[in-house]
Write a structure and sequence with these properties.
The structure is a homodimer.
Chain A (H helix, E strand, L loop, with lengths): L2 E5 L2 E4 L18 E6 L15 E7 L9 E2 L10 E2 L12 E12 L2 E5 L8 E7 L8
Antiparallel strand pairs in A: 2-3, 2-9, 3-8, 4-7, 4-9, 5-6, 7-8
Chain lengths: 136, 136
């Protein structure tokens, strides 16, 4: 298979340190977190403001890349399901998607609400969340 | 900076061939498309069914990885904006996010509605779209 080089642009700084205690999704009780980005990408933050909705993309470095099927949400009563039909961190390319709200931008530090990734998780992209077609 | 290896899991097959003619987002008039995935990841599709909403992640191979700011939607009347505040394909890690509807699953081929990526775009992940917390 072909491959591309995914560059780590920064890291999550969060009070969450244990994946077993992290909420499964950002809207299930995640704390505020800081994305400490590399100074070289600071210009890419221009235009982000408090209150904006963004999608943060992370590399879920604790995920198992050889897993193709799981019991959703680790619930053994749910049938084994292909990882493409789940949000499991175990998948061939463990990219995490996190819809968050911007709380503050300070240099190359972006503080967000609603990020369930643990401290030290690599950040690979940030995108504005899409609203209605007319707002783009 | 650190880096990870992003594996290409398959390719988009679409009547869209010219980026200049592709819609900017999937809900702006994208045609049906087929994700031709590698046979090795077919088990990861188990559980996907017609009508489900998924997020397809692509590698926007035509994107410029050195671009950090753009005029949104190529509109010069809009101020230069950091790429993290946009959905530009030009960005350090050109990952595309596409919310699509599953039309059919046939072996390792996944047919979807609403994918604006051009023919030949590499596919790197598929995830179920999140509904309300109670549906997870």
């Amino acid at each position: 298979m072909d491959a591309f080089e995914l560059r780590v642009l920064g890291y999550v700084r969060s009070p969450l340190t244990d994946p077993a205690h992290a909420p499964r999704q950002g809207d299930e009780g995640a704390p505020d977190a800081v994305l400490e980005l590399d100074a070289s990408v600071q210009p890419a933050l221009a235009g982000l403001e408090t209150g904006m909705a963004v999608v943060v993309l992370t590399w879920l470095h604790l995920g198992d890349r050889d897993t193709l099927a799981v019991h959703p949400r680790d619930d053994r009563s749910r049938p084994l399901t292909g990882v493409f039909a789940t949000r499991s961190p175990d998948r061939p390319n463990p990219i995490g998607l996190h819809r968050c709200e911007v709380l503050a931008v300070d240099g190359s530090r972006l503080t967000v609400r609603g990020l369930e990734a643990v401290d030290g998780t690599p950040v690979v992209d940030v995108k504005i969340a899409l609203g209605d077609v007319g707002e783009r």
